[in-house]
Design a protein that fits this description.
The complex is a heterodimer of chains A (443) and B (315). Chain A is α/β, with parallel strands linked by helices. Helix content of chain A is 50%, strand content 13%. Chain B is 75% helix and 0% strand. Classes of the chains: A alpha/beta (443), B mainly alpha (315).
C-alpha cells in the first residue's frame, strides 16, 4: 500500500514539475501581433532564430487585413495584454503615441546604439516618428512597403500586340512612365482576347470598407499635385486638397476605373488584386510591394511572365507613391516589455535584416537595401527601391480613422457610384476633414 | 425508492438550513430562481443601455481613454438630426425594410397557402423551402457574392440566358441601381420561409367547420379566401411583418458581406453607418446618440404596430 502511495506521489510530483516547467517557459513566450499575410509567415520562420538565441518562445496573433485595424485597435484601446509586440499600421502611430499604447523607444535605442540614421529615411518618418519629423521614436521600421505595379511581361512582348499598339498610339508598348500612358495601355488590353480568354486593362484599388480606395486614389492623386495641407500653415486644406490638380487626379482615377477594370471590380483591394492578376484577368495590377514575392513565384503568371514598374508620373511630371508598411512596437500594457525589447534589438541586427529580405520580408535597413548586390537580388528589388524613394503617406494623426472614413466615402461615392463630380468629392472631403480637426481642437 | 431518497436528503439537511428554506415563500422561491437571469439581463442589456444614454451626451471616444470627457448636452442629437448622410442612410434602410417585408409577406403567404393544400409530397417541399432559413447569414452572404459575380456567377449567367444581356455586364453588386435589389433578393430568399412558417401556423389554426359552413352557403373559393382565410390569418401575417421589420431595421450582416454599404453609399443602411461611426471613426458619444435615436424609432414603431395588432386580434 505504502509503495503504491509513494509511486502515486512520485508520478504526481513529476507531472506537477513538468507542468510547472512548461508554464515557466510559456510565461517567457512573447506574443507578436500582425496582419495575416505572406510576410507574417516569413517572420514566423525568421523568429525561430530569436528563440534559438535567447530561449524566448514566440507566439503569433495574425488577423486578416479586413479585420486587422478593428481587432488590434480594440485590443490597444482596451489596454489588453494579448500583444507584447505589435506591427501596427503606419497611420496608427499618432494615436498610439498620444494615447500611450506604445513604449517610447528613444532611451532604448540610445542604450543599444540603434540609430535611426541606419534606416531608410522615409520609413523612419512613416513608421517610427510622432510627431512627424521629430526625433521621437515609437517603433522600429520593420516592413517597408509601397504601392507599385506589376504587368504581364509575356503579353507586352507579343509581337502582334506590340505592332498593333505602336500603330494605334505611336509609341512602343512597355512599362508606362506616365499615367496617360498607363491608361492607354489599359484601354488597349480592355476586353481583348488573349490566348482564348477575355482580359482586362488593370486592377486598381476600389475597396469601400477599410482603406482600399483611399490608398489607390491617393497613389494617383499625389503625382497629379494633391497636397494634404498648406506646407506653410498646418491643417489649412482649402486649395490644396481640392486644388485643380487634385480634381484632375481624381477624375483620372475614375476614368481609369470606368474604362479599364474587370467587371464587378467595385470592391477590390490587395487580395482581389492578386486574384485578378494571378488568374490572368488583367494586364496591369496596382498593389503593395509585399505581394510581389508571391507573384514572382507563381507558376502561371510569375517568373519571366511578370514585370514591375514604379508608380508613373502625373500630368506635370511629379511622381510619388503611396507608402505602406509598418514598424514594430512594444505594447505599453505588456508585462514582458524587457523580453519584447530584446526582440527589437535582435530584429535590428544587420544579419537578421538580410535574412528577413531573403525570406520575403522588406527590410528597411540601409545596410541591406543599399548593398550593391541588392538590386539584382530579386527581379522586383530595384522597383521597390525606386518606389521607396518617392513615398507619401496618409494622415497619421490620432484622428486618422475618421479622416480615412471620410475619404473612403467621398472617393467611393464619386469613383465607383458616380455620384457628383470630382470637385464635389474633394470639396466635401475638405469639409469632413475640417470638422474632424475642429473636433480635435486643432483648428 | 424515490421517497427513501427524499427522506434521506431531508434527514441529511442541517436543521438551520432546512428551517431557512422552509421559511421562503413561493414568491421568494420564484425570485430566487429568476434572479440570475435578471442579474444577467441587467448586466448585459439594461446597464449598457443606460451607459449608452449617458455617453450620448458626451464627446467620449473609446480610442482615447486618456482624454477628458466633456458633457455636450444635446449637441450629438442635434448634429445627427441635421446630418444629411444619416438621413440618406435612414432612407436606404426604409427602402430596404419596405421591399423585403412586402416581398417576403406576399411570397411567404402564397407559399403557406399552397403548402396548406396538403398536396402529395407537401412535407418534403416544406423542408426544402425551409433550407435557406437554416443557413448562417455569413455563408449565405458569401455564396451569393459568388453567385452575383459577373464573370463566374450563376446568377449573371441565368439573367444573361433569359435576357440576352452579356453576363459580364450584369454587375449586381457594383451597379448603383442594382446593388440595393441584390440585397433585397438575398434577404427575401433567406427569410421568406420564416414568414411562410408563421403564416402556415395561422392558416392551420382556422377551424375547418367555418369553411364547411361557407360551403353550405355556397361561398366561392375567392369569397372564402377574402372573408375567412385572410382575416383569420391576418394577426399571424402582422406578427411575421413585425418580426421581420424589427430584424431588417437592424440588418447588418448581409449588407456588410455583400456590398459593405457600397457602391459609394448606395446600400449603406443605418446599422452600417452606426458601425462605422462607433468602431471605425471611434466617435463613441456621437454613435451612442445615433443608437439611442434608432432604438427609440424601432421601439416607438413597434409599439404602435403591436397596438394595431391587438386591435386586429380583438375583431
Amino acid at each position: 500500500m505504502k509503495s503504491t502511495l509513494k509511486l502515486a506521489l512520485g508520478l504526481a510530483s513529476t507531472l506537477f514539475a513538468s507542468t510547472a516547467v512548461s508554464n515557466v517557459a510559456q510565461a517567457e513566450d512573447l506574443t507578436l501581433c500582425w496582419a495575416a499575410w505572406d510576410p507574417a509567415n516569413a517572420l514566423v520562420e525568421l523568429s525561430k532564430d530569436f528563440t534559438k538565441e535567447t530561449g524566448i518562445g514566440m507566439k503569433f496573433e495574425f488577423v486578416p487585413w479586413t479585420n486587422y485595424a478593428d481587432r488590434f485597435l480594440n485590443e490597444l484601446n482596451s489596454h489588453g495584454k494579448l500583444c507584447d509586440l505589435i506591427i501596427g499600421d503606419s497611420q496608427w502611430i499618432g494615436g498610439a503615441a498620444e494615447n500611450g499604447h506604445y513604449v517610447k523607444l528613444n532611451d532604448f535605442f540610445d542604450k543599444e546604439k540603434i540609430s535611426m540614421d541606419d534606416f531608410v529615411p522615409a520609413t523612419v518618418v512613416g513608421y517610427s516618428e510622432w510627431p512627424k519629423n521629430s526625433p521621437n521614436y515609437w517603433a522600429l521600421p520593420a516592413m517597408g512597403d509601397v504601392v507599385g505595379w506589376t504587368y504581364r511581361k509575356d503579353w507586352f512582348s507579343k509581337p502582334e500586340l506590340q505592332k498593333e499598339f505602336k500603330e494605334k498610339y505611336g509609341w512602343d508598348l512597355g512599362p508606362p512612365t506616365t499615367f496617360d500612358q498607363l491608361k492607354q495601355i489599359a484601354e488597349f488590353f480592355q476586353k481583348r482576347d488573349i490566348d482564348g480568354k477575355t482580359v482586362y486593362g488593370a486592377s486598381i484599388y476600389t475597396e469601400r470598407g477599410s482603406e482600399g480606395i483611399t490608398m489607390g486614389a491617393m497613389d494617383v492623386l499625389y503625382s497629379f499635385g494633391f497636397q494634404y495641407e498648406n506646407p506653410k500653415k498646418p491643417y489649412e486644406m482649402e486649395g490644396f486638397v481640392n486644388s485643380d490638380k487634385s480634381v484632375k487626379g481624381l477624375e483620372f482615377y475614375k476614368a481609369l476605373y470606368d474604362c479599364c477594370t474587370p467587371p464587378g471590380a467595385s470592391n477590390s483591394y490587395m487580395g482581389e488584386g492578386v486574384d485578378a492578376f494571378k488568374s490572368g484577368q488583367v494586364a496591369m495590377h496596382m498593389n503593395f510591394a509585399f505581394t510581389w514575392p508571391g507573384l514572382q513565384k507563381d507558376e502561371n503568371v510569375g517568373g519571366d511572365k511578370i514585370g514591375y514598374f514604379v508608380n508613373p508620373k502625373g500630368s506635370d511630371g511629379d511622381q510619388f507613391a503611396q507608402l505602406g508598411g509598418q514598424g514594430i512596437s512594444v505594447v505599453s500594457y505588456s508585462d514582458k516589455q524587457e523580453a519584447a525589447l530584446k526582440y527589437i534589438k535582435w530584429f535590428a541586427n544587420k544579419d537578421v535584416q538580410s535574412k528577413w529580405w531573403s525570406l520575403g520580408g522588406y527590410s528597411c535597413l540601409n545596410a541591406v537595401v543599399k548593398d550593391p548586390a541588392f538590386p539584382a537580388s530579386q527581379p522586383y528589388a530595384q522597383t521597390f527601391l525606386d518606389s521607396m524613394a518617392i513615398v507619401k503617406d496618409f494622415w497619421a494623426e490620432p484622428s486618422y480613422a475618421p479622416l480615412l472614413q471620410a475619404s473612403q466615402k467621398r472617393f467611393h461615392d464619386y469613383v465607383v457610384a458616380g455620384q457628383g463630380s470630382a470637385k464635389d468629392a474633394l470639396d466635401g472631403l475638405v469639409k469632413d476633414w475640417t470638422e474632424v480637426f475642429q473636433d480635435d481642437g486643432k483648428m | 425508492m424515490l421517497n427513501r431518497t427524499a427522506d434521506s436528503v431531508a434527514r441529511a439537511t442541517p436543521e438551520p438550513l432546512a428551517r431557512k428554506v422552509r421559511g421562503i415563500s413561493d414568491k421568494g422561491l420564484a425570485w430566487l430562481f429568476i434572479s440570475p437571469t435578471i442579474l444577467l439581463l441587467l448586466a448585459i442589456n439594461i446597464f449598457p443601455l443606460f451607459w449608452a444614454i449617458y455617453l450620448s451626451f458626451t464627446n467620449f471616444r473609446a480610442n482615447r481613454p486618456n482624454e477628458v470627457v466633456k458633457n455636450l448636452g444635446l449637441a450629438n442629437y442635434k448634429r445627427i438630426l441635421a446630418d444629411q448622410d444619416i438621413w440618406i442612410a435612414m432612407q436606404t434602410t426604409a427602402h430596404f425594410v419596405f421591399w423585403t417585408i412586402l416581398l417576403q409577406t406576399l411570397i411567404g403567404f402564397t407559399l403557406a397557402w399552397l403548402i396548406d393544400r396538403k398536396f402529395r409530397g407537401h412535407a418534403f417541399w416544406t423542408t426544402i423551402i425551409l433550407v435557406p432559413m437554416m443557413l448562417s447569414p455569413a455563408v449565405v452572404g458569401n455564396f451569393w457574392r459568388f453567385l452575383y459575380e459577373p464573370q463566374i456567377g450563376l446568377f449573371a449567367y441565368a439573367v444573361s440566358f433569359v435576357t440576352g444581356i452579356p453576363a459580364t455586364e450584369i454587375s449586381m453588386l457594383s451597379n448603383v441601381s442594382l446593388a440595393p435589389w441584390s440585397i433585397i433578393i438575398v434577404d427575401t430568399w433567406m427569410w421568406t420561409p420564416y414568414v411562410m412558417l408563421i403564416c402556415l401556423a395561422g392558416l392551420r389554426s382556422i377551424p375547418e367547420y367555418i369553411y364547411e359552413a361557407a360551403e353550405v352557403d355556397r361561398a366561392s373559393n375567392w369569397r372564402q379566401f377574402w372573408s375567412i382565410t385572410l382575416p383569420m390569418a391576418l394577426p399571424f401575417i402582422m406578427l411575421a411583418v413585425l418580426f421581420r421589420g424589427i430584424e431588417n431595421f437592424k440588418m447588418f450582416d448581409m449588407v456588410n458581406l455583400l456590398t459593405g454599404g457600397g457602391p459609394g453609399s448606395t446600400t449603406e443602411v443605418a446599422s452600417i453607418t452606426l458601425k462605422r461611426q462607433a468602431f471605425e471613426s471611434w466617435r463613441t458619444g456621437y454613435s451612442s446618440a445615433f443608437a439611442i435615436i434608432l432604438f427609440v424609432a424601432v421601439f416607438g414603431l413597434a409599439n404602435i404596430y403591436v397596438k394595431a395588432l391587438n386591435k386586429v386580434k380583438q375583431r
